[in-house]
């Protein structure tokens, strides 16, 4: 029989990389049964046989032989006189089985069936891609940049599946053009209007964790465990690690000989500064390690409100806070404590504690300066407006007003 392009279609369908053959066969059978129902009203008395190797199709229709004039449903029954034209040996009550050719349905119905087949198989393909990537969330994937837009970049994996890398999930220093290779972690997978939407990320902590697993065999093998990762993508990251083997130094293993292991990760993250520290249950020691490279003189903990008052020498305050306040922010996220930095004041009879200005400056503003280690008038006046705005969450105008009040004190 002439299958009018359906066999060719089947050859295309069974090449689909993510769909198994039995599934495609069941789809084909369902499409043909739908055609039978449209033509005959029912498919209960029809058998559809699809050859799994080449897609050849056979449709067999069974009707009961009835006495002439007693047939009530031509779709299920056939009169004796009509049957005898084909097979004279059949009697009333016998089953009349005939093969139905595709031409019986007409060219239009067959072309419609082909279209239905294409859409159903594509739908299956999309479902399979969704399931496949849903199970891979958190894994690293490598792809090639196909198109770059303002808010996102389209990346194709090695099977041609589309991955989206939004601008918000890119490291600020990332710059891509068509054909570039990208490594990222699968962040989430959604189904949007029957299309799988696969979002990948280079800013997620999981990406840094997977890079460590690739570079440090001890982490991959489970001898060293990453307890927590916090990041300011492209700027700084802090990684707390712990060893389950007393003979292994977790920090040394992660950094490698002369930094050999961590250098590759730093390059991948566009020179992100990575601090690897030993995890400990001792909160005081943990905070001290988290604020590295600053040297802490004294620390006072409030475990109820999860606050830590940290006292440092004046030359260590800027190290503790870090450029743009990244070091102290990340240390707080890593340890779970709100960290307040205080400088151990060197004796200066002329300097004035900020609390002395509480009648002119709101208390919450004073608290904000103290939070970043600026607790005297001169410590504030030593910094520029831009530096003060960066370190605190204060507006430009507020900072200028405070500086004006403080300068007046010394004039």
Automatic annotation (TrEMBL):
Keywords of this entry: Cytoplasm, RNA-binding, Transcription, Transcription antitermination, Transcription regulation, Transcription termination
BP terms from Gene Ontology: DNA-templated transcription termination; transcription antitermination
Matches recorded under Pfam families: KH_NusA_1st (PF13184), KH_NusA_2nd (PF26594), NusA_N (PF08529), S1 (PF00575)
Intracellular or extracellular location(s): Cytoplasm
Gene Ontology CC annotations of this record: cytosol
Domain S1 motif: 138-203
SUPFAM superfamilies cross-referenced by the UniProt entry: Nucleic acid-binding proteins, Prokaryotic type KH domain (KH-domain type II), Transcription factor NusA, N-terminal domain
A GO molecular function held by the record: DNA-binding transcription factor activity
Stored PROSITE patterns: KH_TYPE_1, S1
Keyword NAD: no
Keyword RNA-binding in annotation: yes
SMART domains assigned: S1 (SM00316)
Family: Belongs to the NusA family.
Family annotation (PANTHER family): TRANSCRIPTION TERMINATION FACTOR NUSA, TRANSCRIPTION TERMINATION_ANTITERMINATION PROTEIN NUSA
Subunit structure: Monomer. Binds directly to the core enzyme of the DNA-dependent RNA polymerase and to nascent RNA.
Full protein name: Transcription termination/antitermination protein NusA
Encoding gene (name): nusA
